[in-house]
Amino acid sequence: MAFILRIPSKFQYGICYTAYDALALILYRLSLPLRLKDVVDRFNRDLRWISTVFNDVCVHLDQNFHKKLEWDSIFLTQQQLQRYCDYVHANGEPSGVIWGFIDGTHWKICRPQPETFDQSLLWSGYKHAHTMVFQSIVTPDGLLVHVKGPYEGRASDWEIYKDSGLQDKLKEYAKDENGQQLWVYGHAGYGMSEGVMSSYRAWGMGGNRAAAPLQEDQEVFNANMAKQCIVVE
Fold first, then answer.
1. Which of 232, 212, 35 is closest to 135 using CA atoms?
2. 204 found inside a domain
3. Cα Dmax for the chain
4. What is the distance between the alpha carbons of residues 225 and 222, in angstroms, rounded to a whole number?
5. CA nearest neighbour of 98 among 34, 152, 170
6. More confident site: 85 or 11
7. If you average pLDDT over residues 16-27, what whole number do you get?
8. Portion of the chain with pLDDT greater than 70, in percent
9. What is the pTM of this model?
10. Total domain count for the chain?
């Protein structure tokens, strides 16, 4: 993995490390919600070494591989997408054209100081906290095949989707061998857009009229997809 990720051995601010030490640190640090000082004893290094190596390698990975986080066309072939569709279909989804699940993930952060940043931009009314938001697609096998962000905490999932450029990638690449559109599934907030399919909603006729109930097959679809989309939660 160190070779594939092209992690170099560097001297940064007088600090020396090997690619293997750096990879081990990255994997350990990101595997659990650990503070930097929690890693010191495990690696028998001082806090300055831990901080420098971790930040240095994170920047390297972002600069060289961030496009693969957004869309990996080498992995997400038509054949692979079809396998995902077949799996979702075998678990009760009737159409056989849904291959993944999309959602936004809020990560809580410390409240920014008012003199350095507008706090309202990062405030999420949904989470009742200051957050940054990441958009992700998860496939039925639990792999993250798309990550985009961070966005300000006040941004909605729909706003992020439109801004991220993901819709263009889905329209271009998420097709079966016959050129038919394949879809990812998201909550009702995504509506129906090219590349994203969401749950059925009961719509009223305006005013104070009660919404017409869903048909039985629509309720079955919603219930089934609510279970399957847990993978992205």
1. 232
2. yes
3. 71
4. 5
5. 170
6. 85
7. 90
8. 96
9. 0.80
10. 2
Evaluate whether residue 4 is within a structural domain. no
**Alpha-carbon separation of residue 185 from 74, 99, 196 (angstroms):** 22, 8, 6
> Residue 233: is its pLDDT beyond 80?
no
End-to-end CA distance of the chain: 28
For residue 7 the two structure tokens come to 């992690």
């993978």: which residue's tokens? 231
Q: Residue 225: what pLDDT?
A: 86
Examine residue 6 and state whether it is found in any structural domain, yes or no.
Answer: no
Tokens encoding 111? 């409240």
- Average pLDDT over the chain reads 87
Show the domain range for 58: 11-69
Question: Do 85 and 55 share a domain, yes or no?
Answer: no
Do the strands 183-186 and 196-198 form a parallel or antiparallel pair, or are they unpaired? parallel
Residues 125 and 206 placed together within one structural domain of the fold: yes
* 52 within a domain of the structure (yes/no): yes
